Task: inverse folding
């Protein structure tokens, strides 16, 4: 260490470390609990953190593998957990992609193009989406019911309906990306104009490559949002095979029978795609992509 | 094909009138510098020429073609921005090639143009680097290279050197002069730095508050400023101004009286002005000589501060004849020190007279005896 440090400073550093480690423990504990529950035989929410015996019955169930029943013959799981996972990934990927496309282009317009009613549109967008989707559940159900009559593809119990519903929630993304665009000097785009780029080329070839890190963040947020979303999905999807993981998991928790073990295994599974997407996206979230364009 | 005409150009942002009726005629191959204080509208004028701002009224012709409604890329111009504005995610070569690529040029064509520009600017070793791996001076070269590749009829520079440190600025200034003599393309250059203006320009356009104050060669604007603004803006340290009243005028000489009654003579024709009319007398610091011996056509004062820079000495003088400090630029051997009384001699042919509107009164030639 190069800087000379006061004695009292060392104590403060130590205290800070203790506090942070405690905080980490608190944050990590629930995850460890869930892993523990999923590996524990039987369906108990309470018990030791490190199970005495490890059983993969819940994982077999979650992964759709048959298990041997007490009387000796194979029992296949009655709930399509992997199928739900696939549904979740599909809907989340599609809606995150659509949300990304809509919000980058909309944010570009809001950040760079002059048009009347811009301020009102931005505020309106924000205000409207401040109300939780739960408040609109009835309306959402009614709307998609009607749409379904005209375009069955977007009706109730269709994943496309869910994608459409999720893609609407982009106000916050638009604000975030707009904020980023505004940090990019206009001169760079003007240079592109002088170089002969059309507005679309300027956006696509100059602005967008610089915005990759923020776009990855937005994609990730939209993806996570879609994976964990419950209320809208529960209203729009009914058939067991169509459910997303978030809705389907609820089926483990009957009033009479709480399948905590299966629920825990499924919960971990549903976290998996988020982790994968995060790791993939992280590669692109390098900062400093805009460095060096101006001044210096 | 790189001549440029501007006819009664107006530009307003809402209610703010930034450019108020500019007329200008630039020859093919000329190096013209727009100079003026910050906020006078230089950048706005350049951006109007580039097509990055729509003009409110007036005409712009480039290469004989009216271009007010033509998009920037079709005007035959290339622009170098103050902030360089390189594309940060592209290498130096890609930055320079971007325009040609968009225009659909062939690979060989692009490579040849980029190589040529890189050679002129001596940046071949940098072609594969990203802008963030370049120094400020190198970035500026790349920005200029990107302009060269476009083979424009007119180069537009907006304060291209103002982000560089002093020594690099001098170096790049010399290079720009070399570049111009090599390419022989019209260059329009904006700066608030009068040294850049004086050294680079074939003609200087002095702009103030959205109006052209004077157009002329560097020496013309230095020796024959058309008004107090140009006289005060060109030259460093700036010209000394003092209020005076006309005593008498003939075809060769005007006699004026300063506020304390001191009388000076100026080689100017003030016959159009009435006796007693308020005028302004101007003289540059380098034209005053100060010493303890009595001199002809001089004012009396006391040295407030003496700044010795080695090659020159600046004396800041107080005088009863004017409220302002008078700056005098003398040779380093001058022995005057702070607190000394001295006479400042004002050579008559180096003095200027300005009327109450700030316009320069006609100067009369020096008659040698
Ligand atoms: N886009 C704009 N909107 C409103 N005012 C502007 C705009 N661009 C420039 N101005 C105003 O025009 C004046 C001249 O600006 P500019 O041409 O940049 O000056 P300079 O380059 O000579 O320093 C300034 O007062 C500035 O505030
Ligand atoms: Mg400017």
Result:
């Amino acid at each position: 260490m190069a800087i000379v440090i006061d004695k009292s400073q060392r104590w403060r550093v130590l205290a800070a470390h203790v506090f942070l480690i405690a905080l980490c423990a608190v944050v990590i504990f629930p995850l460890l609990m869930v892993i523990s529950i999923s590996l524990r035989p039987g369906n108990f929410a309470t018990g030791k953190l490190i199970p005495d015996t490890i059983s993969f019955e819940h994982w077999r169930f979650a992964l759709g593998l048959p298990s041997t029943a007490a009387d000796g013959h194979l029992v296949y799981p009655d709930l399509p957990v992997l199928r739900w996972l696939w549904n979740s990934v599909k809907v989340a990927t599609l809606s995150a992609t659509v949300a990304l496309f809509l919000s980058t282009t909309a944010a570009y317009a809001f950040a760079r193009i002059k048009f009347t009613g811009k301020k009102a549109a931005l505020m309106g967008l924000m205000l409207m989406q401040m109300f939780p989707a739960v408040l609109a559940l009835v309306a959402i159900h009614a709307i998609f019911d009607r749409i379904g009559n005209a375009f069955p593809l977007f009706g109730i119990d269709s994943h496309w309906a869910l994608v459409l519903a999720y893609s609407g929630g982009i106000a916050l993304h638009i604000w975030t990306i707009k904020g980023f665009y505004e940090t990019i000097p206009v001169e760079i785009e003007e240079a592109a104009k002088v170089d002969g780029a059309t507005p679309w080329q300027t956006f696509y070839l100059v602005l967008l490559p610089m915005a990759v890190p923020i776009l990855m963040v937005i994609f990730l947020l939209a993806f996570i949002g879609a994976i964990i979303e419950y209320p809208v999905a529960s209203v729009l999807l009914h058939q067991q095979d169509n459910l997303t993981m978030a809705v389907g998991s609820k089926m483990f928790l009957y009033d009479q029978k709480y399948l905590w073990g299966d629920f825990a295994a499924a919960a971990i599974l549903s976290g998996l795609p988020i982790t994968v997407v995060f790791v993939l996206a992280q590669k692109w979230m390098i900062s400093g992509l805009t460095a060096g364009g101006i001044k210096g | 094909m790189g001549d440029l005409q501007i006819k009664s150009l107006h530009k307003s942002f809402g209610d703010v009138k930034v450019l108020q009726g500019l007329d200008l005629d630039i020859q093919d191959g000329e190096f013209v510098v727009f100079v003026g204080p910050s906020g006078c509208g230089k950048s706005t004028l350049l951006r109007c020429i580039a097509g990055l701002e729509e003009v409110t009224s007036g005409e712009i012709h480039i290469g004989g073609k009216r271009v007010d409604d033509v998009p920037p890329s079709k005007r035959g111009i290339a622009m170098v921005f103050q902030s360089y504005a390189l594309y940060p995610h592209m290498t130096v070569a890609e930055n320079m090639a971007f325009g040609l690529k968009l225009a659909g040029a062939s690979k060989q064509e692009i490579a040849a143009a980029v190589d040529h520009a890189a050679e002129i600017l001596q940046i071949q070793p940098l072609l594969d680097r990203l802008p963030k791996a370049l120094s400020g001076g190198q970035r500026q070269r790349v920005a200029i290279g990107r302009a060269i590749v476009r083979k424009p009829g007119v180069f537009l520079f907006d304060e291209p050197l103002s982000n560089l440190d002093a020594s690099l600025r001098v170096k790049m200034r010399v290079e720009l002069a070399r570049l111009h003599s090599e390419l022989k393309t019209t260059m329009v250059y904006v700066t608030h730095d009068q040294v850049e203006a004086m050294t680079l320009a074939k003609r200087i356009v002095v702009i103030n508050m959205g109006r052209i104050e004077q157009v002329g060669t560097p020496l013309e604007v230095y020796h024959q400023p058309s008004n107090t603004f140009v006289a005060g803006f060109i030259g460093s340290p700036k010209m000394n101004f003092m209020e005076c009243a006309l005593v008498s005028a003939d075809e060769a000489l005007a006699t004026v009286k300063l506020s304390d009654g001191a009388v000076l003579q100026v080689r100017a024709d003030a016959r159009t002005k009435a006796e007693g009319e308020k005028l302004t007398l101007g003289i540059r610091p380098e034209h005053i000589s100060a010493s303890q011996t009595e001199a002809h056509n001089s004012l009396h004062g006391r040295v407030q501060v003496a700044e010795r820079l080695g090659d020159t000495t600046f004396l800041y003088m107080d005088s009863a004849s004017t409220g302002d400090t008078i700056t005098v630029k003398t040779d380093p051997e001058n022995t005057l020190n702070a607190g000394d009384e001295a006479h400042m001699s004002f050579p008559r042919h180096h003095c200027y007279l300005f009327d109450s509107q700030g316009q320069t009164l006609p100067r009369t030639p020096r008659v040698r005896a």
Remarks:
- Chain A touches chain B through 25 residues (CB under 8 Å).
- Residues 95 and 268 of chain A are 22 Å apart (CA to CA).
- The pocket of adenosine-5'-diphosphate (ligand 1) is lined by residues B 13, 16, 18, 36, 38-44 (CB under 6 Å).
- The two ends of chain A are 29 Å apart (CA to CA).
